[in-house]
Amino acid sequence: MTVLWCEHAWLPDGPADAVAIEVTDGRIAAVRPGAPRAGTVLPGITLPGFANAHSHAFHRALRGHPSPDARSFWTWRDDMYRIADRLDPDSYRRLATAVYAEMALAGYTSVTEFHYLHHGPGGAPYDDPNAMGHALVDAAAAAGIRLTLLDTCYVTGGFGEALSPVQRRFADAHADAWAERLDPFVKVDDGDRVRLGAAVHSVRAVPESELPIIAEWSAGGPLHVHLSEQRAENEACLAFYGRTPTAVLDYGGVLGPDTVAVHATHLTGDDLTRLAASGTRVCLCPTTERDLGDGIGPASELHDAGVGLCLGSDSQAVVDPFEEARGMEMHERLAHGVRQRFSPAQLLHAATDGAAPAVGAPADLVTVALDSVRTAGTAPLGVLHAGGAADVTDVMVGGRWVVRERVHQGVDAPAAALAAEITALRED
Fold first, then answer.
1. Is 381 exposed, middle or buried (0-12, 13-18, 19+ CB in 10 A)?
2. Residue 133, exposed/middle/buried by CB under 10 A (0-12, 13-18, 19+)?
3. How far is CA 420 from CA 33, 413, 414, in A?
4. Number of domains in the chain
């Protein structure tokens, strides 16, 4: 048994002082507020681990490389394709290990990877057709972070369009071929550190007639989909199907309580009704959505309709769960002119995907300093508004220290590793 004594800890009812947390076999065995100081002392405030509900690890190589040609999402995508075309299983493993280590240092204890970079250049399968997926599993293990790997179905280059040469790396011939490729891969799902799920890349990349195949394969497990991120996608979908992307997904059997729609930035009233009625949740990615100029999503409207919300880093423009949570709130303030649309507890619920340090829960915990130049004088309740990734001091996943006193315990020099891998990928 490990005993942690937290100066402050955010419990299911909110912040409490002098909290002892007992950890046994990777799970929380007891939580005692007002406890005498004993065991491992954690100054600051200890929170449930942050959950990164939407990630594309290789997009990290795009950060800090502005291009005068990337004036829209669609032109930004060209640089993303160029980076994707240069990765192989070994380089992807190294890059993703450093990216996941960066996430752990920022306070993420889990990541949901929306994985669509499957094959070799030109679309030729690797000897192991799931080699790129295995690289991500290995990377998460090395970084000490929990992984939900969403193997993504990608079939077409657009509505009724052929694949471009680089998109062939992403694609299987059809949804049945996608499912067949996954058959030998399901053994990676251990239900604890690694979980396998599915994703529909988008309604432009998977024909409506093939959506039921993916929905059936993923039944009872996680299923994610990019939804209405761009107005242009909505317009093209209406022109092709005569229905919005949300309606197409509904007709295809994709919506449901195990489904997460990512972005959902440009929705109609009917779309909101369909999401709420099906129990589908929505993942907002505020830092990416503003970086790409996507727009401000209808977080208030979704919440008021009863749609559950979670948060992700998506393109890794920023890896900071505090900034994602703040972004969700600040976007609402800009859109509606009202302060504190979401309470601190609601923001934490979205940022942790509902996790709480309760008895029986996994011991996934993050400690945040309250004495930095950013957080000094901050009330524990306000840590999400004041703090940032640089204030994370300690991270525990499943009862094991992944970050201790701001140092990653499993990956040496993550910053140097990121620099080396990204420089190599971007060399002309």
1. middle
2. buried
3. 45, 11, 10
4. 2
Of 375, 371, 411, nearest to 395 by C-alpha is 411
Residue ranges in 344-413 assigned as alpha helix (H): 344-352, 383-386
* 376 and 232 fall within a common domain: no
Look up the CATH number of the domain holding residue 252: 3.20.20.140
Long-range contacts, stretch 379-387, CB < 8 angstroms, 24+ apart: 380/8, 380/10, 380/15, 380/45, 381/14, 381/15, 381/344, 382/344, 383/45, 383/47, 383/322, 384/322, 384/325, 384/326, 384/344, 384/347, 384/348, 384/351, 385/326, 385/329, 385/344, 387/322
Which of 172, 314, 391, 394 is catalytic? The answer is: 314
Both 71 and 216 in one domain: the answer is: yes
pTM over 0.90: yes
Distance from C-alpha of 177 to C-alpha of 153, rounded to nearest angstrom: 9
How far apart CA 101 and CA 106 sit, in angstroms, is 9
Number of C-beta neighbours around residue 339 at 10 A: 9
Question: What is the span of the domain harbouring residue 40?
Answer: 2-47+359-414
The residue type at 45: I
Of 310, 327, 352, which marks where a domain is finished? 352
- Alpha-carbon gap, residue 23 to 45, rounded angstroms: 17
pLDDT tens string, the chain, 428 residues long: the values are 999 999 999 999 999 999 999 999 999 999 999 999 999 999 999 999 999 999 999 999 999 988 777 678 888 888 899 999 999 999 999 999 999 999 999 999 999 999 999 999 899 999 999 999 999 999 999 999 999 999 999 999 999 999 999 999 999 999 999 999 998 898 787 778 999 999 999 999 999 999 999 999 999 999 999 999 999 999 999 999 999 999 999 999 999 999 999 999 999 999 999 999 999 999 999 999 999 999 999 999 999 999 999 999 999 999 999 999 999 999 999 999 999 899 999 999 999 999 999 999 999 999 999 999 999 999 999 999 999 999 999 999 999 999 999 999 999 999 999 999 999 999 87
Q: Is 56 a catalytic residue?
A: no
Q: How far is CA 163 from the centre of its chain?
A: 26
Establish whether 88 is a catalytic residue: no
Helix (H, G, I), strand (E, B) or coil at 259: strand
The closest alpha carbon to 356, from 105, 41, 1, 46, belongs to 46
Query: Alpha-carbon distance 288 to 98, whole Å?
Result: 20
Single out the residue of 108, 106, 113 nearest to residue 139, CA to CA: 113
Q: Which of 263, 303, 331, 349 is catalytic?
A: 263
